[in-house]
Sequence to fold (248 residues):
Amino acid sequence: MKISIITVVFNGENTVRETIESVLSQDYPSIEYIVIDGDSSDTTKEIVSSFGNQIHQFVSEADQGIYDAMNKGISLATGDIIGFLNADDLFNSNKIVSRIAEEFKKIEVDGLYGDLIYVSNKNSDRIHRNWNAGKFQSNDFLWGWMPPHPTFYLKKQWYIQFGGFRLDMKTAADYELMLRMIHKNNAKLAYIQKIMVRMRTGGASNATLKNRLIANKNDRKAWKVNDIAPYWFTTTLKPLRKILQFFS
Fold:
């Protein structure tokens, strides 16, 4: 089973090397590693190129943002399974991809996800938040639930059948995609009760109150474009659930 891992980066010279090393250190033998760069103006391209053919495909060109770059990666991927580890993220150990492959082989599922911790930008050992995703139950999305996207792995055939990221969804594109795959089209999921990814703090949707309000509007749009009616409180409950991450 080949697993394609896609790293999207733009001007990520401070973190991209550590991300790449995190992928290359995995003990699973059948990884296709793809890096998509948005034509960085810092030393990102030089850093990526320094790894030579350890990176199977490297594209550097202007794009329309992170989700456009992710779609490019999906179109290039030849693996049975596709996942993302972006330039601010790290695998929590060198056995994560092996565990992902084991889970797909053990039970018949379409996708899987696990737990995630948010860490300091300057020190990836300093934990800020702990996202214990929990086991998925039917209709969880209606109660504001979603899996951590950096831990989400899906069979390639699902992207072929149901499409990639919608660029018109802006910061909610990952939410919309998982809503479409899991809630609307009933992808069968496995849950790995294990910290899979360390994600550095930040993110456009949570940077300011204004951005959070815009993100909430985009979350509502995600339901609308899929012709699904959420509960009146669904998109309000979604960000409120994150409060628990500071205490778990």
Q: What stands out?
A: Residues 209-225 form the longest helix (17 residues).
